[in-house]
Amino acid sequence: MKRILFPNGTYNDIPLIESAHKLGLYVITSGNDPHGAGHAYGDEYCRCDFSDKEAMLKLAKEKQIDYVCSCGNDLTAITASYIAEKLKLPGHDTYAVSRKFHEKDEFKKVVEELGLTSPRSALYSNERDALNYVLTATLPQIIKPVDLGGGKGISVVRERDEGTAAVRNAFHKSKNKHIVIEDYINGTQHGFICYIMNHKVVFDYSTNDYSYLNPFMVWIGTGYPATGYESVRDQIISDVEKMAEKLGMADGFLTIQYMMHHGKAYYLETMRRCLGNFHFKCISRDIGINLYDLFIRTECGLDCSDLIDSIRYSGLKSGFLGIYADRNGVFEGVEYNKQFEKSIFDQMMLCSKGYKIEDYLGDKLGMVWFSFENDDERKQFIENRKHLFTVKLSSD
User: Fold this and answer.
1) Which of 33, 197, 305, 325 is deepest in the core (most CB within 10 A)?
2) Is the pLDDT score of 259 beyond 80?
3) What domain range includes position 235?
């Protein structure tokens, strides 16, 4: 039986593990958290820090793996590419190319080299230089660690006296102590998801992305097509194919987070890993194939042309919604707006009654997935998105 290594084993990895089992693979999960929900779905758990690429490579050699999966985390994607390159496994970019898509400073270099549309930015590994820049730059500026996702360590500096704390926070959060400072663009946020084959985009999808109390974490993603997508689709696809050719990208998925500003798409971040929030579940519903199956087959270097040829847009507009409280407290339950509840096709709670919420801005309590049959339903949802549910709390 052939073996596949998952550098992590969170709940986000569960559908990938299930797809690996469909191929008859023996699944080894890893990561520092032995309580990760995905481990129970694998065949073996080996504790190892997925950010330590040398330790993970040693584990891969010991377990004599045949494939490696990048999972749903930027660091696991980089580690997976490193292992694949060292062991000559199929289905992945080189380690150097993977870093370009999962580290914000490396992607900014690609943007500059290819002349792509993106906010003006500066990269720093020295705190004093970064502070000096913030003191003279045109405000507002957004400050980010280069190597973290989920909005961790990100701040917007609108006043000079906010700069010092923002820079120090970003350096503190960054694992490799590199940050990026870029012009803050006021626009609407979107996602572009595509599949690349032989350096050409053979499938594309777009979303409207929304934040709530935490402005740097996508709270809601709604399905195809994103508002204004028709006007920038050709631009984005052309730029992606330019990157694919220039960097020699492997076949597979690419996601770009972008801002629409004055009719143009400004690229913020990219990733080649599986998306969080079980977003592939939503997209799969809209296009008629299982994207988790496609992802695993791709990362194993298997032929995927039959799945690509089977894509058919259903007309559904599906999306995800993360459940967050608006303050700290003890979780008692969730109550949904009745109008919205009828559109939910699946849900998952990540905590139970009595759970103590201590970081409401980052503490995801659960997720729901929904579908709309037409633009009017989606429009109504978007207009009422802050009133779709109520998290019931007690103070102790």
Assistant:
1) 325
2) yes
3) 187-271
Residue 115 in domain: no
* 140 prior amide bond cis, ω within 30: yes
Q: Report yes or no on 288 lying in a domain.
A: no
Beta strand extents in the chain (DSSP E only)? 3-6, 26-29, 44-45, 67-68, 121-124, 141-145, 155-157, 179-183, 188-197, 200-210, 220-222, 252-261, 264-271, 317-323, 329-336, 344-349, 356-357, 366-372, 389-394
Please check whether residues 19 and 80 belong to one and the same domain.
Answer: yes
Could you tell me if residue 279 is inside a domain? no
How does 154-180 read in b/e, with b if 16+ C-beta sit within 10 Å? Answer: bbebeeeebbeebbbbbbebbeebbbb
Same domain, 194 and 248: yes
List pLDDT tens digits, range 206-242: 999 998 877 777 889 998 999 999 999 999 999 999 9
pTM: 0.89
Q: Are 181 and 141 in contact (CB under 8 A)?
A: yes
Looking at the structure, tell me whether residues 165 and 207 fall in a common domain: no
Digit-coded pLDDT (tens) for 57-104: 999 999 999 999 999 889 999 999 999 999 999 999 999 999 999 988
Q: What is the mean pLDDT of the chain?
A: 93
Tell whether 56 is covered by a domain: yes
